Amino acid sequence: MNRLAVYGAASLGVLAAGWLLRGLGAGTSGEMAMEAMVHVARPPRIEPDYGGTVIPPNIAPLNFLVEEPGTDYRVRIHGDAGEAIDVASRNGAIPIPPRRWRQLLEVNRGGKLTFDVCVRRPDGQWARFEPLASTIADADIDRYLCYRLIRPIYIVRVNVAIYQRDVETYEESVVVDNQSFGRGGGCVNCHTFAPGHDDQMILHSRGSGDLSDLNGMIVVRQGQVKKVDSRKLVRSAESKRGRVTNSLAGYVAWHPNGQVAAFVAGDMMQFFHAVGENRDVFNGESDLALYHADSDTVTTAPQISRGDRVETFPAWSPDGQYLYFCSTDPVPKDRYREVRYDLMRVRYDADSGQWGEVEPVLLAKDTGMSVVEPRVSPDGRWLLFCMCEYGEFPPFQPSSDLYLMDLGTRRYTRLDINSPRSESWHSWSSNSRWIVFASKRRDGIFARLYFSYIDEQGRAHKPVLLPQKDPTFYDRFLKTYNAPELTPSPVPASERAIVKAICGPAHAGSMNSSDGGG
Amino acid sequence: MMQIVGRQWWRVEKVATSLSVMVGLYFYALLRVRPELFYQQSPSLLRLDSDFLVPLLARLGGAVDFAGALLSPLFVVGWLGALVITVLAALICMATRWVLAAMSQGAGSVLCLVPLLPISMLLGQYHHPVRICAGLGMVLGLTAAYACIGHRRCAERVTAFAILSAMAYWAIAGLYVVFALLCGILEWRVHRCRWWGMLCALSAVIVPLVVGGWFFSQSIEDAYRGLFLPRERYWLAAPSQAPVSWAIRAALLLSFPLAALAATCRGRPGGSLALSLEAPSASNSSDIAVPAAGRPMPDLRPAVSLAALIALAIAADFLLFDVTRKYALLVASSAEREQWTDVLKYARRLPPSDAWTAFQVNRALYHRGELLERMFEYPQVADSVRTLTMQWDSVTATAQRAPLESSDILFELGRVNESQHMAYEALEIFGEQPRILQRLVYLHAIKGELDAARRFLAVLERSLLHRDWARAFRRLMDADPTLSAVPAVATRRALMVERDFTGNLDTETMLVHLLDRNPRNAMAFEYLMAYYLLTRQIDKLTANLRRFDDFGRARLPRHCEEAILISWGANGPPRMDLGGRQVRPETRRRADEFTQALGRVRAGPFEAFAALYPEFGDTYYFFYLFGCSDPRLFQARPRR
What we know:
Chain A is mostly beta strands. In chain A, 9% of the residues lie in helices and 40% in strands. Chain A has helices spanning 2-27, 98-107, 364-367, 495-503; strands at residues 38-40, 46-47, 54-55, 64-66, 72-78, 85-89, 93-94, 112-120, 126-129, 132-136, 144-150, 161-166, 172-177, 187-194, 197-206, 216-221, 224-228, 249-254, 260-272, 279-292, 297-299, 310-316, 322-328, 342-349, 354-362, 370-376, 382-388, 401-406, 411-414, 423-428, 434-439, 448-453, 464-465, 480-487.
């Protein structure tokens, strides 16, 4: 019996050692008879398709899957300088060692990156494909990416969470998760960062019925996290206009001075179609207002809260002198297909709190489409926005595409990076060289995040899918990404502090404070 | 010699007893409880890939979640589920025996079987057994590991407890409380270290609060996850008698500390509880089996204890077994397998007040071609439209209360977008369940959204139980992107509406739109007629009789004939186009009999109901008059 056990253990040991050695062999480049290789006059199919992209020099390794039939895969990644990276694989998944990847990208910044792919076919013959080439940009992308991950939500919200991803690694951390409320629901959304003020952000929490006490705007500022109810912070009579005292805040944009945030107080409703894309959104009435963080007050003005217009999507110019926003004439809900937003802007003097006249930037009557989600580049040169067939919610509009306007000339172009499916939720990197956007191009249901390099001429280059350690991750990931925001620094509050603020009472504000810049 | 033989015989007897109890539990689970009903409650994917399993292990209570993820899908096969239950229960009994042995320097054969009683009661409450049993197995294993340390120095015991506590809380989360209490009892009663025992017991409160609540930022509920009744989102998975389930769960969890206390009382004055239930331990069995006189005496105490345990189990089953939940699950399971005869059979065992049961009955009747022939044989209530399509007044209410059922019926009717809506609601509420993913595959395939369908197939392909189906579907999709050879796709595509609608979609509008799209949509038509019957809109029903021509039906269904006769009675002579069809003589005869019987009744509505129900309770005349086809529902109405 004992002898049997010894023989058994020895056999297992030999097998394990053989397997280990085989694995080790697979992990090195090994020897391939180059002269015996068949040359395939096309690049290999890889997933995600990183060929021809411009990649950030500080991006995490772009692991990929070679989608060519074979039993062995060898990939050499190299640039003009630095040590090439060789990766071998038996299943086509190419895991790139992070440290060597970083080194390679760093020494080839601004240069080319080439992927040589060889595949041993099922008949034993090695095949060498045309190399795949990418360009390494010379400008970094902001290191942190904040986004919301949800299932394709219709009505019920069981799990809604905002995450932060370090794009230089694969590390993802929770900013806030509604499961932490311990209330079986609730929603978190509209996370917004203040450019140049790393210690500031705003997000919103929502709840209905028993969870309505979760409602509020969560303001992170100067090391403090508090929940405010924008409806109750309107002090002056002239600011008690439209929806401002009735509707919860959403779609926030921090003024560059970090003291004021513009937001939407709106009456948005979701409705459903019997044919085609199920979901749609209708905004019956909404107005813009300002939250003054120093005084905890809310103000508005006739220019941004007209009774005969529906205003939404505020975005500040980086100098803080203009508030860009979208507006349209109100129509009854059954005429939702006629809703087309114009892009407008209004001058604002942050010191005096004075508003100028509203001026059109791009009118729907000229484009024939609805102009939404404007975002000005941090250098003030470009304005990135969506245009879609109608309405104000591009994620549900397959027709939604990204457009870029040169603010100097007011000329705009449809970016080449668009797909036949929805593109939306875009944001700029702080150096104005990168954008991130959500696209449903892979399947029409689940939005994924893509980075695209914007060069000096305003050309957007082939986008890079947010990399994951497992290259097949997106194939089976049944959540959708939305509202990606790039920031150079991490979220300035812990999940615990945010959850505590959300679950606590709304901050009442200072009753003695002034109008806060009126 | 006799002592040795006696001891060996006693051991054989003990093993045989334990085995027979386990075999009994196996057959109780297999035949009485039916483990596949647990799968019906929470169907899950059997995934073994690291990106599914590793995140489970990374969270508090991860080991229990891991065990649940691996074992729960096995319940899809009844005998396998029963085996899982039996093995887990056996492991708990064995671990209990080890722990009690450590507590009392010996072990009892019956006391360690005591946990089987609350476990069987939990099964009878349709409380999924895997997680709690796996968790308790881990609790007892870790406690046994701590007990193995024995009477070492205090510092070593403290270190061991700290290490095991960390492991335990990570592995079992809230069930750590049981571990801490058992360790406390061990220290207090066995090692006679009262202060350390107290601290161990206190850690039951402190560790979850500090580690879970403070360090991992969990809510109190999550910090003690596993200790309390889990919050189930699917109503069939939630206990129908929550207080009873709570009590049983508490009894199960408390049974271990109590058994430990009892075990430590062995041989001590007043330690009668242990002695009353205990068999003799290995060390002293010979003393009991062979008394001073030297004549072997049969010790009946284990047998009596075992008999008492079995009697208690039978009584508990008789008193507490949740028959209603069992038959509801059987109805749901049969409906999912399209075994419509079984749906009708099991539904008869359920109380009539439930709209869900009536919904499943109506669905089964339709699929058997009997909806308009026999629907009033079953409990129906006037204007209770929900029993047809499970639609509440608002889409929000429907999404919250019955997304799965709503998606099912909408899919069958051909309301593809609405079914998709509800399937996504179900995905959000119940997670990645195979039936939801399969439904979404079909829905996206019907809409020609093959990339989206592939996304769900990719998940199903990772499940050992569903990969064959997913791969076969993918092959079909690759071969023919239109999937015209797949009946579920081709038939629904022919039914789905093509004209958009964004208004309030009530049941009638929904069905009419379906018939506008495809007048041969038999289900939409029969449901529309059933809707008019339920809402007693006979004028609308008769106005739609011409639609029977679209289905080539030579005769009218019985309930339609009955409605026609009511209409004739109310509106005078017939001027109605029945498309050459006649109301059958027997229907007329019963109408006459009903009228005569009604004329003979000289009492109030309740008495009239009681008098007419036995003979006419299955007719539309009766329903039309009383607005109800079941005496229990009618009795429950407020009397005026």
